[in-house]
Amino acid sequence: MSHSLNVTVMVDAGTISPDDPEFTAEPQTTTEGHVVAALRELGHRVGVLGVDDCLAEIVGSLTEHPPDIVFNLAEQFRNDRRLDMNVPALLEMMDVRFTGTGPAGLMLCRDKGLCKQLLSLHKIRVPDFLVLEPGQSIRVPKRIQYPVLVKPLYEDASDGIAMASLVKNESELLERARFVHERWDQVAIAEQYIEGRELYVSVLGNDRLTVFPPREIRFGNAGKGGPIIATSRVKWNEQYRQKWNIEYGFAELPEAVFAKVARVCKRVYRLLQLRDYGRIDLRLTPEGRIFILEVNPNPGIAYGEDYAESAEKAGVGYNRLIDRILRLALRRYEPAPIAAHVKTPRTSAAANVAGV
Ligand SMILES: Nc1ncnc2c1ncn2[C@@H]1O[C@H](COP(=O)(O)OP(=O)(O)O)[C@@H](O)[C@H]1O
Ligand SMILES: [Mg+2]
User: Which residues line ligand 1 (CB under 6 A)?
Assistant: First the structure.
């Protein structure tokens, strides 16, 4: 970037180590640390602002030291992921520029049911699903096919997802839904289990979208009793992955398949109002059907994780990636060129198809 900016990196307060509150130690080992280090290497002046439960502190800090832009890595407020959308909402109200998806996109993606309803309205394939509210008698419709995966409606990081989430019949489904209601204190979603390759597709951009080479998780012992879904143990326990021969790598896809995946992911990205960067998780069935599992407006962008690996494979190294995200965000705040005002608004599904 040509000139140095004042960047405030907003992070979940729990990620700030008391020994290194400004993320200056080397090397940094977390997403937050990697982003801060990259921004500094790019020549920016970087401050870190922790988000916990104190609104006054956030407002005070941003008022006292107004940044040129916030790099928003906060994923919750008051330890509640459902409040993640309010962080950018607050920044909008304060007229502070920030990177990444805004409140509307975060809201659409937070609810795993709402997001699937919207996609299916636009004829994008998603697993059949059922939302189970706590405290209500539940009738499971006949159309539901097993196995079914029962998950908390609003979580991330595979919280609440274990092999026991995969159920074979109605009584197991109800039991797991009760577990989600009690342990996670929230609504459960039961989704038809989709068998197939699991791909993680990283997308960058706004008006023009770049789809990076997809990553894939390979369940080496599927069929031999090993895990077949990315449970929280699979995601966070390397020894467990080794034990069950589970690996992350790049997805080898025929060109036509990649083109189809990229086309669908761009539509999903626009429909759910993602901005600057995002990752779409999907399954590709043996018949070549694409089912969208989940859309992440706040994907992990740590060095070495899927998003950064995909970008790197496309020739966008880590610092350049962070720079691109920052520039994409800044460009959104520039006044629109005159021509944009006379363009037909892109509102219909048809316009979305044409736009990709
Ligand atoms: N309908 C489904 N069919 C097959 N696997 C699924 C389905 N839903 C979730 N999974 C598995 O569970 C993992 C986590 O589910 P996801 O909805 O992405 O939760 P999180 O937001 O916690 O990442 C996925 O990566 C996938 O392996
Ligand atoms: Mg996921």
Answer: 112, 127, 149, 151, 155-159, 161, 191-194, 198, 229-230, 281, 283, 293-294
